[in-house]
Specification:
By secondary structure, this protein is an alpha/beta fold. It has helices at residues 30-33, 51-60, 77-89, 102-109, 127-133, 146-156, 170-179, 191-203; strands at residues 14-16, 19-21, 23-26, 40-43, 65-68, 93-96, 116-120, 137-140, 162-165, 183-186.
């Protein structure tokens, strides 16, 4: 089983429908979703969202799922329909991409009952307007600048729930938590990378545990 970094357990967590979520694995790989000890999944991908993908992930996952429903390449009524479909399939929340208009956020908010997670990538984003439109959780993804952006948001909005990318090291995860993130997204190794390590052991003649 894949294990998320232990440092993530320092996070306070975000409580949604009675479940406290600290660690969120960033993947759409069903095999990884079924074999990781994360508290939840954030399933977003760089293509037009499709209900069949959401359905496949929801049927396979044994942990809560935040489903991406567009907002970048996908706009308008399709975003609302995808969000509604995700809710019907059992998603714990929907994720809207950074380019999503506040009007779209508001329309989704008026349509579904599960939390809206809005992605934040820059300090230029109008956080107040996002929250007023209906966003319930912020998903901060600003690469190396993530801790600084989290700290700025936390200063201005002390109570808003924040998910943030933790980065590749224990130090970056701790820095993001110390900045004010409540939950951390973790990018696991790919199935190909895992298989490479396993096959190298097989080739070396190491016994299977």
């Amino acid at each position: 089983m894949l294990k998320v970094p232990e440092e993530i357990q320092r996070a306070s967590g975000i409580k949604i429908f009675g479940k406290r979520i600290r660690s969120i694995v960033f993947t759409t790989d069903i095999c990884i979703i079924r074999n990781v000890n994360a508290d939840a999944v954030i399933a977003v991908y760089p293509f037009t969202p499709q209900p069949i993908i959401t359905q496949a992930i929801m049927l396979s996952a044994d942990i809560p799922v935040f489903c991406g429903v567009g907002g970048g390449l996908t706009q308008g009524k399709r975003v609302i329909n995808l969000a509604l479909h995700a809710e019907f399939q059992g998603a714990i929340g929907v994720v809207l991409n950074a380019p999503t208009t506040n009007k779209s956020v508001k329309n989704v908010f008026e349509t579904i009952d599960i939390p809206i997670v809005i992605t934040v990538v820059s300090e230029n984003d109008d956080i107040r307007a996002r929250l007023e439109a209906g966003a319930a959780i912020l998903n901060v993804s600003a690469a190396a600048k993530t801790p600084q952006l989290v700290a700025k948001i936390r200063k201005d909005f002390p109570l808003v729930p924040i998910i943030a990318t933790g980065g590749p090291t224990a130090e970056s995860i701790n820095a993001t938590i110390d900045a004010g993130a409540n939950a951390i997204t973790w990018t696991p190794p790919t199935s190909a990378e895992i298989f490479t390590a396993v096959m190298n052991e097989y080739r070396a003649g190491k016994p299977h545990p």
